[in-house]
């Protein structure tokens, strides 16, 4: 072999499929030539092993790195060895994609400033960006809702879309899937993914497993199709685009055994909520989960994709399903190239990557198991996806949760007396005299509103819309309810936002869309809506009634995220549920209704109608899916996927090699990361006499840290926009403005539900500035500290940074002047992103230590020495000086985990590192 590829284990072979030859790196040959036991590895680990065999170069990947992958077996699946992993491609959505393209454009400018060729700044691996996060549910419940929402979307996002169209023409190896096509995960599953990837190199075609990283944490959905992928921050994705490997530790792999089959009346959603609860309890953060066992043969590939999608919710890096007959059948059904399908099957069998029942199970770090027959209908809420509640207990559990949710009853919003209050009709599940059931007037309406009322019922993208079984089930529930004369409660905002246009095709083909329309579930758009906070505003009278009376309003959605403050600022309790249950709760109208026992309403003849009367059988669903979900739908809908609608084609693109930045733009601005940058990094500095910007408790999510959802007029970001002549009605969302650092840094730590423990009983992004003691928005305090040249640190509890892979949670942190985050533990992606932006993550080195155990109040000063000579995972010491002058010394473990991460940190971030390398 050449010097660039030593092929230490003599694994390079040729595979011939239908007369075409492919070079591949044969795991079976490698096993014979020194990698004993490779065949017993989990399938996901085989993908990593092949990646290393193919990438061996004696520089980033050595023979020892490859051996470590198999040594994993004798180490009983322990994580530890650092490897350089090279994904085949990158997937982006527009919220996280826009700032990545902004950074690429800024790197071109910086490259010119350093005297280098800006044309070098291009993706070096294929990148697909799917515009799917910008549609909002402004219009709903009408046949023209979709067209109106599309018009508003283009009007709101014209600047961003112009910029992305420029990017699609300016950069090589970069494709954009226009708005209105579908969500990135489903477009990836149905069209972009190949399961086995190929590339031309030196006149040969190399075949290897399809792998990717994505700038959305739910990139994991495609693991259901045996494509190894997970979410990373935009920062890490940009490095991959620019040819850098991902530095990672060989993971632990938890085996999840499935047996049996789902019982009648349950759905894939019920299964995934059960799996999420089990894996959260097990503790799989930073680990791979791989599913195995005979039960896999009783799940459709769409069921597997639903489970894989929820990996961020159960905390794993990914939830992997091996290639089997269902993978091949799905590729066939979704219109993939016939030769590619033959290649996938031949390659998987040649590599020992094809799963069949009755074969010895792989070796795992640890295992757990589930009998599918024990799964019951479920919801998850009111705040976290792992908080599963059996449907039979949903009403009683909501009653228990209500007391906590009511926590901050406003003065004057005490419930009316039983004599004055109006109550819901029969079947409401509420009893007169119960404080929570007092109903308050809604202006201009002939109904009231109460705690527990469902004001949003959304069949939203992502978790469920890859799965025709649950969508057809929703259509059948709507049909049966409509036939019986049931209607949705008037206070419910209903919406249907499928993951791809194919969904519309099969719902119309099955004649179910008209039934969904009749129940108010009209198409509102193709994209991520309610699940990411793009639920749009509630009707003004509904919003007023909720806020004036401090009601605990509820949402029921078929998404995957229900964190506080995420779905809608007016909604305090959010429940994840299957699409048919979303329809049922829209009819019931309240979480107090026990829909397993109470009637949902009355039919045309005045008879009670129960859930069982409108719930479809598994056979009914299967028959419709068989007839309507066919190969031709996928072929026609994806025939010209990059062309876009007439709105997209009308966008005028200007600019050439570098972007023509517009100083007046409030959407896209040239970020300051590269200002004053030289060819050599400045020496590292210790952190001295830093002030504390925030003290936070456990489970602070990236939603809490990163700007997301609507922009408040009376916060720093709103004030900035108003000062730039943007009316509040045109604020759009933080996500839409991710290309403007001025907006985003003002919204960092500004979530309406975040609680900074430096302040008593105050929610929202506020802090106390020291030594003045003044209470002010976190952004304002950070700017004041910057003027005073005072560095900042943040303290937090366990699982800091859980949730979506939001790069702005790290970018905003560094732009506010935060040098270090000290927590009890981190979620994987956010820790990596902090390092990628030059912020040092630390955990307390001694068990049981926390900022609370140290008695911190927020008025202390923090010094951390040793950063000038820091090494990966080094134990260091912080000196914390209290206001009274006393000090305490605390041991910290620096979570800069690898040598590559150390290089990024030394350079001030991963972008600086890559740019210097390319410019040199």
Give an account of the 3D structure.
The chain is an alpha/beta fold and 920 residues long. It folds into 3 domains: 89-374, Aconitase, domain 3, CATH 3.30.499.10; 405-633, 2-Layer Sandwich (Aconitase, domain 3); 687-706 and 748-919, Aconitase, domain 4 (Alpha-Beta Barrel). 32% of the residues lie in helices and 17% in strands. The strands form 11 sheets. The chain has a 7-stranded mixed beta barrel. Strand 33 and strand 34 form a beta hairpin. Helix 2 packs antiparallel against helix 3 and helix 28 crosses helix 29. The two termini are 29 Å apart. Mean pLDDT is 92; it is low at 408-436.
- Level of helix content? 25-40%
Low-pLDDT windows of residues: 408-436
Largest sheet: 7 strands, mixed, barrel
Spatial extent as radius of gyration: 27 Å
How much is the average pLDDT? 92
The side-by-side strand order for the widest beta sheet comes to 26-29-30-31-34-33-32
Give the number of domains: 3
Count the helices. How many?
Answer: 31
The fold-level CATH name of the largest domain is Aconitase, domain 3
End-to-end Cα distance, whole Å, is 29 Å
Q: What is the CATH C-level name of the largest domain?
A: Alpha Beta
The share of residues in extended strands comes to: 15-25%
- Main structural class: alpha/beta
Number of strands: 34
Label the CATH architecture of the largest domain: 2-Layer Sandwich
Gross morphology is globular
């Amino acid at each position: 072999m050449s010097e660039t590829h030593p092929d230490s284990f003599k694994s390079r072979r040729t595979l011939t499929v239908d007369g075409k030859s492919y070079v591949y790196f044969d795991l079976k040959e490698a096993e014979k030539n020194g990698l004993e036991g490779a065949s017993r590895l989990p399938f996901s680990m085989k993908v990593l092993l092949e990646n290393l065999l193919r990438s061996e170069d004696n520089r980033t990947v050595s023979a020892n790195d490859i051996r470590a992958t198999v040594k994993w077996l004798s180490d009983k699946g322990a994580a530890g060895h650092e490897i350089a992993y090279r994904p085949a491609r990158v997937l982006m959505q527009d919220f996280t994609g826009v700032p990545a393209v902004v950074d690429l454009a800024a790197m071109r400018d910086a490259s010119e400033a350093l005297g280098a060729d800006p044309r070098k700044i291009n993706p070096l691996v294929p990148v697909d960006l799917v515009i799917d996060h910008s549609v909002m549910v402004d219009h709903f419940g009408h046949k023209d809702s979709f067209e109106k929402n599309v018009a508003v979307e283009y009007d709101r996002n014209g600047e961003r879309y112009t910029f992305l169209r420029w990017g699609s023409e300016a950069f090589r190896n970069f494709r954009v899937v226009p708005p209105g096509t579908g969500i990135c995960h489903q477009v990836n599953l149905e069209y972009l993914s190949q399961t086995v990837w190929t590339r031309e190199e030196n006149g040969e075609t190399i075949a290897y497993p399809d792998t990717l990283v994505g700038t959305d944490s739910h990139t994991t959905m495609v693991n259901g199709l045996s494509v190894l992928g997970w979410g990373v921050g935009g920062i890490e994705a940009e490095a991959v685009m620019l040819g850098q490997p991902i530095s990672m530790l060989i993971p632990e792999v938890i085996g999840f055994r499935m047996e049996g089959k789902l019982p009648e009346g349950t759905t894939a959603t019920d299964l995934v909520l059960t799996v999420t609860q089990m894996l959260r309890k097990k503790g799989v953060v930073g680990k791979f989960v791989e599913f195995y066992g005979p039960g896999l043969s009783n799940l459709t590939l769409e069921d597997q994709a639903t489970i894989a999608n929820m990996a961020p919710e159960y905390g794993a890096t990914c939830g992997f399903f091996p290639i089997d007959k269902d993978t091949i059948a799905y590729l066939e059904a979704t219109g993939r190239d016939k030769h590619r399908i033959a290649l996938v099957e031949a390659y998987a069998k040649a590599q020992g990557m094809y799963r069949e029942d009755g074969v010895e199970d792989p070796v795992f770090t640890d295992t757990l198991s589930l009998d599918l027959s024990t799964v019951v209908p479920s919801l998850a809420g009111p705040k976290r996806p792992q908080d599963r509640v059996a449907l039979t207990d949903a009403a009683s559990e909501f009653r228990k949760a209500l007391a906590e949710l009511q926590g901050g009853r406003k003065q004057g919003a005490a419930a009316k007396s039983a004599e004055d209050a109006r109550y819901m009709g029969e079947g409401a599940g509420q009893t007169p005299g119960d404080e929570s059931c007092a109903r308050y007037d809604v202006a201009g309406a002939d109904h009231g509103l109460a705690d527990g009322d469902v004001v949003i019922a959304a069949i939203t993208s992502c978790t469920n819309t890859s799965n025709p079984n649950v969508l057809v089930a929703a259509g059948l529930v709507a049909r049966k309810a409509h036939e019986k004369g049931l209607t949705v409660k008037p206070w419910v905002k209903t919406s249907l936002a499928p993951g791809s246009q194919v969904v519309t095709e099969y719902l119309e083909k099955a004649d179910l869309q008209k039934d969904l329309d009749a129940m108010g579930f009209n198409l509102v758009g193709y994209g991520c809506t309610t699940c990411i906070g793009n639920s749009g505003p509630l009707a003004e009278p509904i919003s007023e009634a909720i806020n004036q009376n401090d009601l605990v309003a509820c949402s029921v959605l078929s998404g995957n995220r229900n964190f506080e403050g995420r779905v809608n600022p007016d909604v305090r309790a959010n429940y994840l549920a299957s699409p048919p249950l979303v329809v049922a709760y829209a009819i019931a109208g309240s979480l107090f209704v026990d829909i397993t026992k109470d009637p949902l309403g009355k039919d045309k003849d005045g008879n009670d109608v129960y859930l069982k009367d409108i719930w479809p059988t598994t056979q009914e669903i299967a028959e419709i899916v068989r007839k309507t979900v066919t190969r031709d739908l996928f072929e026609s809908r994806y025939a010209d996927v990059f062309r876009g609608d007439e709105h997209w084609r009308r966008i005028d693109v200007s600019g050439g090699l570098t972007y023509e930045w517009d100083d007046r733009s409030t959407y896209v601005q040239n970020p300051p990361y590269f200002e004053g940058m030289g060819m050599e990094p400045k020496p590292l500095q210790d952190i001295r006499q830093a002030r504390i910007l925030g003290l936070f408790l456990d489970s602070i999510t990236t939603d809490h840290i990163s700007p997301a959802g609507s922009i408040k007029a009376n916060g720093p970001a709103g004030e900035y926009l108003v000062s730039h002549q943007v009316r509040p009605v045109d604020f759009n969302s933080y996500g839409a403005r991710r290309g403007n650092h001025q907006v985003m840094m003002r919204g960092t730590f500004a979530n309406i539900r975040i609680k900074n423990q430096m302040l008593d009983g105050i929610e929202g992004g506020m802090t106390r500035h020291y030594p003045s003691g003044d209470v002010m928005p976190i952004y304002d305090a950070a700017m004041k500290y910057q003027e005073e040249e005072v560095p900042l640190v943040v303290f937090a509890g366990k699982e800091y940074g859980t949730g979506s892979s939001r790069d702005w949670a790290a970018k905003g942190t560094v732009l506010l002047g935060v040098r270090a985050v000290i927590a009890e533990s981190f979620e994987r992606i956010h820790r990596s992103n902090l390092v990628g932006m030059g912020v040092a993550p630390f955990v307390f080195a001694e068990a049981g230590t926390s900022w609370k155990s140290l008695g911190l109040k927020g008025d202390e000063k923090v010094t951390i020495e040793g950063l000038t000579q820091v090494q990966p995972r080094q134990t260091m010491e912080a000196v914390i000086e209290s206001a009274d002058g006393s000090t305490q010394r605390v041991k910290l473990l620096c979570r800069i985990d690898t040598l590559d991460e150390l290089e990024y940190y030394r350079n001030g971030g991963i972008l600086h590192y890559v740019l210097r390398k390319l410019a040199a």
